[in-house]
Specification:
Blueprint lengths: L3 E5 L10 E6 L2 E2 L2 E2 L4 E6 L2 E7 L14 H10 L4 E10 L9 E2 L3 E4 L27 H13 L4 E2 L3 E4 L8 H10 L3 E3 L5 H8 L2 E11 L12 H25 L1
Parallel strand pairs: 1-6, 1-7, 7-13, 8-10, 9-11, 11-12
Antiparallel strand pairs: 2-5, 3-4, 5-6, 7-12, 8-13
The structure holds hypoxanthine.
């Protein structure tokens, strides 16, 4: 039974090198997950893989059933989740293709099913979310990066936007003023739901592009460029993940 899950984002609908053992469909009280849970072997360990946007990359960030994904992972016995996301870079260190292990989140999403605690409660429940990522899992990813000689930022604030459109330059300026280093569309409510349901959760982000207005005056964001940078970044992510799993 695998206790470790990897949730793949844009550019990681499949985990290259994953030796697939079986696929498991779970029906959850919250509906269907993004796809079947793929049990396999990776970095010498048993893992479960799930493509957040579906295996054909058809589910946009605001439609992803985050509750079903996390409930399903917990149901099949997962204890730790490493979530991979593609992001835009806001602050100078966050250049395209750079990897970041974020340590904080600001949530700008709205209207998403963002909690397990809303119906049939015996009491109102509030989780502590001061430090939204699991520190032990973050440290493991940081150690793995050191061992695999992959340059990363060991902290950063992830601003989660609603999407699916990209941001305006003014929105990015506001986000920088708020303290965001990177911007993505899937970090929330995923991280909070993991905390609610008792899963240790950490994330590794690949910078796919300079966020809106950051590449230079008048520059717009090219989807081709995003795809190319994500592809390069995901090769690094693959090495990082297999090293992290070896260290577990
Ligand atoms: N904004 C939001 N989400 C993203 C971006 C971005 O610039 N790049 C990749 N995911």
């Amino acid at each position: 039974m695998s206790e470790i899950a990897i949730i793949g984002g844009t550019g990681l609908a499949k985990l290259p090198g994953l030796k697939i053992i079986r696929r498991e469909v779970v029906h959850t009280p919250f509906g269907e997950a993004s796809g079947a849970f793929t049990h396999g072997e990776y970095g010498g360990k048993e893992v479960v893989f799930l493509a957040r946007h579906g295996y054909r990359h058809t589910i946009p960030p605001h439609i992803v059933n985050y509750r079903a994904n996390l409930w399903g992972l917990r149901y099949i016995g997962v204890k730790r989740v490493i979530a991979i996301t593609a992001v835009g870079g806001i602050t100078p260190e966050m250049k395209p293709r750079h990897l970041v292990i974020p340590d904080q989140i600001i949530d700008y999403t709205w209207g998403r099913a963002h909690t397990f605690f809303e119906k049939d409660l015996s009491h109102v429940t509030h989780i502590d979310f001061s430090f939204p990522y699991d520190q032990d899992l973050r440290e493991l990813l940081i150690r793995a990066a050191g061992q695999a000689q992959i340059e990363i930022s060991t902290q950063g604030t992830y601003g989660a936007t609603q999407g699916p459109r990209l941001e305006t330059a003014a929105e990015i300026t506001r986000m920088e003023r708020d303290g965001c280093d990177i911007v993505g569309m899937t970090g929330m409510p995923e991280a909070a739901l993991a905390r609610e349901i008792g899963l240790a959760y950490a994330s590794c982000s690949v910078v796919a592009n300079w966020a809106a207005g950051r590449a230079g005056p008048g520059e717009v964001i090219s989807i081709d460029e995003i795809n190319q940078n994500v592809k390069t970044g995901m090769e690094q992510i693959g090495r990082l993940l297999s090293t992290a799993l070896e260290l577990m």
